[in-house]
Amino acid sequence: MRHSPFSACSIARGEVVLTGQPREAGSQKGRYPRLVDWLRQMHARGAVLCSACSGIFLLAETGLFDGKDATVHFSYAQQFTAAYPAVAIHPERVLVIAGLREDLVSSDASTTWHDMVLYLIARYAGATDAEEGARMYALQWHQDGLAPYITFEGKSDRAADDGAPADPVLGKTKFYTCYGCHGVEGYRNAYPNYRVPKLRHQHATYIIAALRQYKSGERPHPTMHAQAASLSDQDMADIAAYLQDVPVNPAAGAAAPAPKQLSACTACHGENGLGVEAPLNPKPPVLAGQHADYLEHALTSYRNGRRKNIPMNGMAQLLTSDEDIKVVAAYFARQPSPLTTATNSSKVSCPGASVVRFSAK
Ligand code: HEC
Ligand code: HEC
């Protein structure tokens, strides 16, 4: 695509139309009607429509992707779904090829346009040329997909398929530096002041996801970053196996009538804060019995965007006042729960149990 939308519209024929990132992606529905019209015409004349990153916003406006699969950089996924609910979006996929003629092609985050270009070269010039190009420019296919970059989108919690199975007994040993804070009942983070979260019996997949986010810096907390930075995937799996111990079962029914602010939360966290029977990965954290001040801190961080998570950033917006946050946090905190502070005397009750391992393949 040429730079100016209007000069592009003067092109009458072409096999491939490629849209890049429009500025202020997503906020410009209806802004380029001529260009959108032109895209439809080009498609009708046989062109393949391709997008890189948020370029899919412009292509989706044609309506041609309705009912079809596509991908977009995960940081735009929520915004995209809100604007184009009829498109099935897969932010964990590098390249999505849809349409009867394989005529609707979208690529995901930043450099995955390389994958798309290699695909197009293979398609139009042949596999040898694509291989040659890849070799020349040392381009690698993003064969792991984008799940490793999106914590919530991480793939299934299959049983250990790489590395050793998670070992809760080793995990307990590896947790020794963590007792200093997490092993002390009611231990407080200084600024801002809130109690450190209870970890014992929290879901293993969530513990691993959280540690990865701290390690990468995506979830900001300097001390936890320092703690997680030295942990390998195996260490995290072992620690998570120790902390989770016997998996939490989302029991039915809540102890108290739930406040109205909770209606949007129960689909994932259950009415009692123990979660739901659903194949979510990682499992949303157990909220029941967690410290209320920690829950408030977490919700405030999601709401102001400091802590990033696609579903939770949206959910926290629904709690419009600080009072709403307090009500919800207090409610979950007083629900019956297996969550406890992990102390040195916590017993490992299922040594050798096959505990799920987060694999971001
Ligand atoms: C100096 C105190 C301190 C130490 C030591 C520490 N943590 Fe933490 N940890 C915290 C605080 C504070 C938070 C909450 C941070 C936030 O707001 O995200 C936290 C959060 C966590 C969470 C996220 C829990 C949730 O519900 O989201 C996990 C998992 C965790 N820590 C694991 C560990 C492990 C494993 C170690 C040892 C390798 C460790 N921590 C050592 C203070 C500590
Ligand atoms: C679509 C599923 C979903 C819905 C609906 C949802 N959550 Fe969550 N929630 C999650 C996931 C997943 C996480 C973990 C996110 C992360 O890694 O930061 C989470 C994390 C949290 C945490 C952080 C807990 C911790 O230990 O750090 C709190 C608090 C929370 N949710 C409260 C709520 C509230 C209150 C609502 C309703 C307004 C809600 N959630 C709705 C999926 C959901």
What share of the residues lie within helices?
Answer: 25-40%
Extended strand count: 8
Strand % is 5-15%
What is the overall shape?
elongated
In CATH, the homologous superfamily of the largest domain goes by the name: Cytochrome c-like domain
The tally of structural domains comes to 2
Helix/strand order: HEHEHEHEEEHHHHEEHHHHHHH
CATH architecture of the largest domain, please? Orthogonal Bundle
Q: Figure out the total of helices.
A: 15
Secondary structure layout:
Elements: H1 5-8, E1 16-19, H2 33-44, E2 48-51, H3 56-60, E3 69-70, H4 77-83, E4 88-89, E5 95-98, E6 104-107, H5 113-124, H6 127-136, H7 168-174, H8 179-182, E7 188-189, E8 194-195, H9 204-216, H10 222-229, H11 233-244, H12 266-269, H13 292-303, H14 310-317, H15 322-333
Parallel strand pairs: 1-2, 2-6, 3-4
Antiparallel strand pairs: 5-6, 7-8
Helix pairs in contact: 5-6, 7-11, 9-10, 9-11, 13-14, 13-15
The chain binds heme C (2 copies).
Describe this structure in words.
This protein is an alpha/beta fold. It folds into 2 domains: 5-149, 3-Layer(aba) Sandwich (Rossmann fold); 168-333, Cytochrome Bc1 Complex, Chain D, domain 2, CATH 1.10.760.10. Helix content is 36%, strand content 7%. The protein has 15 helices and 8 strands. The protein has helices at 5-8, 33-44, 56-60, 77-83, 113-124, 127-136, 168-174, 179-182, 204-216, 222-229, 233-244, 266-269, 292-303, 310-317, 322-333, and strands at 16-19, 48-51, 69-70, 88-89, 95-98, 104-107, 188-189, 194-195. Strands 1-2-6-5 form a 4-stranded mixed β-sheet. The chain has a two-stranded parallel ribbon with strand order 3-4. β7 (188-189) and β8 form a beta hairpin. α9 (204-216) packs across α10 and α13 (292-303) packs across α14. The protein starts with a helix and ends in a 28-residue tail after the last helix. Mean pLDDT is 83; it is low at 151-161 and 351-361. One heme C binds at residues 151-152, 197, 209, 264-265, 267-269, 284-285, 287, 295, 298-299, 307, 309, 311-312, 315, 318-319, 328.
